[in-house]
Amino acid sequence: IGNTVLHILVLQPNKTFACHMYSLILSYDRSKEGPGSLELIPNNEGLTPFKLAGVEGNTVMFQYLMQKRKQNLWSFGPLTTVLYDITEIDSWAEDQSFLELIVSTKKREARQILDLTPVKELVSLKWNMYGRPYFCFLALFYILYMVCFTMCCVYRPLKPRTGNKTSSRDNTVYVQKMLQESYVAYEDELRLVGELITVIGAVVILVLEIPDILRVGAAKYFGQTILGGPFHIIVITYACMILVTMVMRLTSTTGEVVPMSFALVLGWCNVMYFARGFQMLGPFTIMIQKMIFGDLMRFCWLMAVVILGFASAFYIIFQTENPENLGQFYNYPMSLFTTFELFLTIIDGPANYDVDLPFMYSVVYFAFAIIAALLMLNLLIAMMGDTHWRVAHEQDELWRAQVVATTVMLERKLPRCLWPRSGICGREYGLGDRWYLRVEDRVDPNKHKMMRYTEAFKAQDRDNYDKGSEKLEINRDTPYKKELSALSLSRSTSRTSSHRGWEILRRNT
Fold it and tell me: What Cα–Cα distance (Å) separates residue 209 from each residue in 99, 102, 202, 410?
């Protein structure tokens, strides 16, 4: 019951009342240390009160709980060294990481905790010591891996075509080799080494991604932009395309160019994932993800309806015409593709002025130009501009969340020998087996002086306001006197408060 009340207090809107009641309940806890403590009992979602405060973005409760856990090591003048308990914060030995919970929650207030002590110092320590070097090495390794795969695709086994052309539009001159003919020469053996590296890399990608999908859940793993959800979809699809290409090569099945082309596009697009390691480029990946999976996905539904309607109209108009004179609409699939190019203004309006064009072509093309080029494309630009404006206002916050998510990901993937635990063990200071982070804080004495000056000004203004209110109540029956008194009161109040405030500043100086 006590643990349930603690979780309820974390969710209370009255933060001051919740903190006092939290301390009151813990004062009656007999087992304040060890696994039996009320603060260490998780709820049904596996969240302790401390983790729940982070997930809900309750910064007041989080700072209150951190103040309870800190240990003052020494103090000398304005310098103070504090040991912060990071047992639940550090993701090194936690199955359900506190940092991962913060970056995966949908509440923006939770990300503000990343800028608080000691979370900010812990993330900075992990990223600067291990995260950034490993991430840069991983980016370089992936780029070299993609170069190897690209070279294997460029020099894939082809042979000249021996059969006759089936139509005048047939333009094929090379065909795919059979498996027995693909690995004969020395150059083929070099390509085989690159293909083996590509396949092994695809298998490693699946082995690393599938456990995280099972642990976190597919909806949360692929749906969170901060965690790199769209990029996880891209890299898993890329690995599957590589395996499909391998099977088609081993079975001598024609058409391997289809999965190979998809793999090349997806593999090189995934390079943008590594832009999150740089503050200049990280927020732009967030913008691209939100535009593609937000604005563009909604816009594609409208675009598909317009393209289907006008492509069908163009095909019907040119169905009775000679396709050699205007070949952009010679069949229905080509009409769809041409209309798509016209929609995006990639090509100009197809017209052959050597022959008479149908009158309805001019009418339909006029309506299409108005709807597609003028209306819908400008609508898409406005939608993307709004998304850019919203993301730009929180780009620093989003980049910090990206860094935290990347740090947690690397910490889980790498062996323990390559990523030692951060912080100081409490046994060095006689504080048990808990782990602490040492933070040096500098207290500026001038800040406290200015706070006293501010309070003095506020107190004087409050007293003058109370006196003025009493005078206005007395002179309620005489409106003219009321206005004069209010005017003189405002002047005397500003003059008196300013004079007394400057006297305080002179004395203290």
Answer: 19, 21, 11, 12
